């Protein structure tokens, strides 16, 4: 247990009433605990269990303070104890909601209660897995399968592997076309926009917009799909505006990020294909991708910097 928490009267009171255990990141049991509770980050994580060992709440400990200010840090032990106390008042565990849905698997309300709690407790990967399985289960009503596919796409943590990321976006696009009137369909737009390690985002997204517009034209009522195509175009325009801004003191990492996002292969190579950046595997991948793009275009790539 972090020593800074113990001097707090509120945390001392909590420890006198409930069992509190801590596991350091480098402990042999840490990895298995992360898998068990679907913890996908390395931040401090808090899991609150009831007397049966079932999950009442699960959350990133850092969020209890509400920020990284000096004032928030001073209040952190008391706020964390308060958050745990609130969790102890929860009357239904995650497992209770799971059992209720499994007893009536075609009950959408029961499923939503279970899925919502999974998301609230940070178990997004587990929620996505359940939705993926349910979305392909022909025994479920078609409306529930469609709902699961949308929710699964929203719950899926973003892939770091490019091939899997592209396959996922293809799936999201299909889900959007098939379920444009789902109340949460609009939330899929950021999944199609992407960013981060994506090269030449504008070209990729413009192609997606064109496909959505083509799909809309094949429908009796094209409006529902066109609304999403327009929303994606607007999101791309906003992002492109931000990516066009540079600063005189801009660091190489920021310049390279903008160049990579915009598909400026030459700039990516010129910025990153030299020390110290060429020692970073991520940047080496960006340079390789930029060289491949120039090769496809029949253009010569800059030599080593």
Defining key terms:
2 strands, 305 residues, 14 helices
Please render the helix and strand layout as text.
Elements: H1 9-17, H2 30-36, E1 45-49, E2 55-60, H3 70-88, H4 94-103, H5 108-120, H6 124-135, H7 142-155, H8 162-178, H9 189-193, H10 201-217, H11 223-243, H12 252-262, H13 265-272, H14 281-296
Antiparallel strand pairs: 1-2
Helix pairs in contact: 1-3, 4-5, 6-7, 7-8, 10-11, 12-13, 13-14
Helix content: 55-70%
Largest sheet: 2 strands, antiparallel
How large is the share of residues in beta strands? under 5%
Mean pLDDT: 91
Strand order of the largest sheet: 1-2
Radius of gyration: 24 Å
Categorize the overall geometry. Answer: globular
* Number of discrete helical segments: 14
Question: How far apart are the termini?
Answer: 49 Å
How many strand segments? 2
Output the helix-strand order: HHEEHHHHHHHHHHHH
- Low-confidence segments, given as residue ranges, are none
User: Helix- and strand-based class?
Assistant: mainly alpha
Structure write-up:
This protein is mainly alpha-helical and 305 residues long. Among the domains are: 86 residues, no CATH class; 66 residues; 45 residues, no CATH class. Helices cover 59% and strands 4% of the residues. The chain has 14 helices and two strands; from the N terminus they run ααββαααααααααααα. A two-stranded antiparallel sheet has the order 1-2. Helix 1 runs parallel beside helix 3 and helix 4 packs antiparallel against helix 5. It is globular, with a radius of gyration of 24 Å. It starts with 8 loop residues before the first helix and ends in a 9-residue tail after the last helix.
């Amino acid at each position: 247990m972090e020593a800074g928490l113990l001097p707090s009267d509120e945390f001392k009171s909590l420890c006198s009433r409930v069992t509190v255990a801590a596991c350091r990141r480098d402990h042999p049991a840490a990895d298995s605990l992360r898998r068990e509770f679907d913890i996908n980050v390395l931040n401090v994580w808090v899991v609150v269990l009831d007397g049966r060992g079932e999950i009442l709440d699960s959350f990133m400990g850092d969020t209890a303070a509400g920020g990284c200010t000096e004032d928030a840090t001073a209040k952190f032990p008391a706020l964390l104890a308060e958050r745990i106390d609130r969790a102890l008042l929860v009357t239904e565990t995650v497992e209770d909601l799971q059992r209720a849905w499994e007893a009536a698997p075609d009950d959408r309300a029961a499923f939503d209660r279970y899925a919502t709690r999974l998301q609230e407790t940070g178990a997004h990967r587990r929620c996505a897995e359940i939705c993926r399985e349910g979305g392909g289960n022909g025994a479920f009503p078609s409306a529930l399968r469609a709902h699961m596919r949308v929710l699964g796409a929203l719950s899926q943590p973003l892939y770091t592997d490019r091939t899997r990321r592209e396959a996922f976006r293809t799936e999201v696009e299909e889900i959007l076309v098939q379920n444009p009137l789902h109340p949460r369909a609009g939330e899929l737009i950021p999944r199609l926009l992407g960013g981060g390690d994506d090269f030449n985002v504008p070209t990729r997204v413009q192609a997606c917009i064109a496909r959505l517009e083509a799909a809309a034209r094949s429908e009796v009522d094209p409006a529902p799909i066109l609304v999403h195509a327009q929303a994606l175009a607007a999101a791309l325009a906003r992002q492109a505006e931000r990516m066009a801004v540079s600063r005189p003191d801009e660091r190489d990492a920021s310049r390279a990020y903008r160049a990579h996002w915009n598909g400026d292969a030459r700039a990516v190579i010129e910025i990153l294909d030299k020390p110290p950046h060429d020692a970073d595997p991520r940047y080496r991948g960006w340079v390789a991708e930029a060289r491949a793009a120039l090769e496809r275009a029949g253009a010569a790539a800059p030599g080593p910097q």
